[in-house]
């Protein structure tokens, strides 16, 4: 049965939850649409014999012969141990784990030709992106398990918003902005962006920030704590900026008012925890 948008608790759906209910609702809503980032574009659940992660719900597969984002990205090893290591880090934040499990159906590991394997032990971060058409598909490098963990929750949060009907230039619900109304993004700094793109940036990286907080709190070595501190410092700064942009400029419809109330309240709590850890 398709969800009835007006009957949903949008404040609760806006934030990560232990059961992944918000992501399941987003996927169900995607299944009611056609076209870009709709359920019909999904590659579907794992098939027999395919490697899987996230409780067997996410297939590790190659979606195409080459990654489309940039020629330096190539398809990677479907069985590399860093993939499981990244998943294990996400599991330390159960709400984030549930989000990925329910929002993503396909993980395509990729290599960055600019980062040779001999540099993997020193390189930090990850390059990741969603597909330009398919729902539930994400690409990410895996040279750094910490960076891959961030990529998992980052891209899953994008998929959740796509499911709810928020694209990059316009939205079926939540936001009420024209595509030509442009604002500062907390992430893309070289140009102004439509408000749906600003929300995507803030929403995805707030989930990364929440993971950073958890990994900082649960670090088991000085090195892990320092890596977590590095990412948390950067993300608290830019997510604080993005928070104020949304607070000042976001216009919503009825469900969006509840969605933003839930998201902004949760965000403030995460940012306050982050600042306390960095103090």
Describe the structure.
The protein has eight helices and eight strands. The chain is an alpha/beta fold. The strands form two sheets. Strands 1, 2, 3, 4, 5 and 6 form a six-stranded mixed β-sheet that branches. The longest helix has 28 residues, at 222-249. It is globular and about 50 Å long. The termini are far apart. The mean pLDDT is 96.
Describe what is shown at a glance.
With 279 residues, the chain is an alpha/beta fold.
Describe the structure using short key phrases.
alpha/beta, 6-stranded mixed beta sheet, 8 helices, 10% strand, globular
Distance between the termini: 48 Å
Number of strands: 8
Order of helices and strands: HHEEEHHEEEHEEHHH
Kindly provide the radius of gyration, computed on alpha-carbon positions and rounded to a whole number of angstroms: 18 Å
Largest sheet: 6 strands, mixed
Helical stretch count?
8
Strand content: 5-15%
Q: Please state the average pLDDT score.
A: 96
- Helical fraction equals 40-55%
Spans where pLDDT lies below 50 across 5 or more residues: none
Task: Identify the overall geometry.
Answer: globular
Structural class: alpha/beta
